[in-house]
Amino acid sequence: VQVEESGGGLVQAGGSLRLSCAASGSTLPIDGMSWYRQAPGKQRELVARSVPRRGITDYAESVKGRFTIIRDGAENTIHLQMSSLKPEDSGVYLCVVVFRGRATDFLYEGQGTQVTVSP
Hints:
Layout: E1 2-6, E2 9-12, E3 17-24, E4 30-38, E5 45-51, E6 56-59, E7 67-70, E8 77-82, E9 91-100, E10 105-109, E11 113-118
Parallel strand pairs: 2-11
Antiparallel strand pairs: 1-3, 3-8, 4-5, 4-9, 5-6, 7-8, 9-10, 9-11
């Protein structure tokens, strides 16, 4: 199973970036896809998640109104549109995918993509 993130980069405060996550290599259905953020010296933070089967899309308070999860129809792909970026949004953004098995779920995450927001 592969989970691959892309779209990170360097942007000035107030700018925008769009991250993408694509999962492949499993025949199991995807139950949910989430974005986490890991900044140096800080705990990993759940930024946004999407669980279509349960009608769940939610965001961390710190990004509400600025970040949006976009699903373009491909079940194994998710995007994170980030706008009005702030320096505190900097970090490695990781995509976590939950595959739904018959008796248990399987979690996979990618290597992450670096987002750096300059003041």
